[in-house]
Amino acid sequence: MKQAERSRILTWVLLIFALCLLIIGSLGAANALPQITSEYYSGGIEMYDIGVELIENDVVVSSRTYSENARYVWDEEDGALLGSLLAEGEKFHLGQVYREELCVNNSGKIDEYVRVTIYRYWQDANGKKITTLSPDLIDLHLVTGGDWIKDEQASSTERTVLYHTSVVPAGKKTSLFADSLCVSGDIPYKVTQTEENGVITTTYDYEGVTFQVEITVDAVQTHSAEEAIRSAWGRKVTITNDRLSLS
Questions:
Q1: CA-CA distances (angstroms) from residue 200 to 3, 9, 14, 241?
Q2: Given its phi and psi angles, is residue 127 left (phi above 0), alpha (psi -120 to 50 degrees) or beta?
Q3: Contact of 59 with 81, CB cutoff 8 Å
Q4: What residue ranges do the domains of the chain occupy?
């Protein structure tokens, strides 16, 4: 077998291994982290409960709920995203659109305003963030323009910040803020070729990369919400007839 042919075979083996790492990393390393920020108000000796759950494809991924039994005690459960992305036995394919329906549930006992922060990025085999590969290749399709609005001031290519414009009642879910996920199929075609002594070697630019999706959910109570949001999130908002808009 000629050396050039061996080099081509080797690069295909490396590509297959890289795609396996990509799939494993994408399905196993994306965390969902609900957080709660709240000013606490009491009526007499009554303490209010506040809580949020991140729901993915009808399954609770992660939750954090304030406990009425003790102040600053939380009932929480952290999980990983994309666990319900594939059916049993189904393989992940680049370029394919998958159902990824995401929303927030108010698991507390008081009404809330909710904010969601989404991070999309790439890592190499050593866990180092790759800045030369665009987060836009990770297409988490957002549902905005209705109950959810994007905070353009706080968002970047890697980070997206969404606000739910209406009050989320206790025990109720928001509408979807995302409905599908597709990872670009162009990645395997990003290659570099070098020639030495007449032998052409093809190297895939992103061998071993993994894509990452992280989501943080925050909530504040509706009492004095403008002041609470500005204090907790550093964002000036206007609330008119319980409807939130960004100032």
A1: 9, 12, 16, 67
A2: left
A3: no
A4: 30-189+206-222
pLDDT in tens, 131-183: 888 999 999 999 998 899 999 999 999 999 999 999 999 999 999 999 999 98
Output the six-digit token pair for 144: 């905005």
Which segments of 26-96 are extended strands (E)? 31-34, 51-56, 59-66, 74-77, 79-80
**Structure tokens of 199?**
């032998």
Smallest CA-to-CA distance from 219 within 78, 77, 111 is with: 111
Instruction: Give burial (CB, 10 Å; 0-12/13-18/19+) of 157.
Output: exposed
Q: Which residues contact 116 (CB under 8 A, 6 or more apart)?
A: 104, 148, 161, 162, 164, 177, 215, 216, 217, 218
Exposure string of 180-205, with b = 16+ CB inside 10 Å and e = fewer, is bbbbbeebbeeeeeeeeeeeeeeebe
Cβ atoms of 102 and 32 closer than 8 Å: no
pTM, 2 dp: 0.77
Residue 69 buriedness (CB in 10 A; 0-12 / 13-18 / 19+): exposed
What is the per-residue pLDDT across 62-105, written as a single tens digit (0 to 9) for each?
Answer: 888 766 555 555 566 667 788 778 888 888 888 999 999 999 99
HSE-CB for 192 with a 13 A CA cutoff: 5
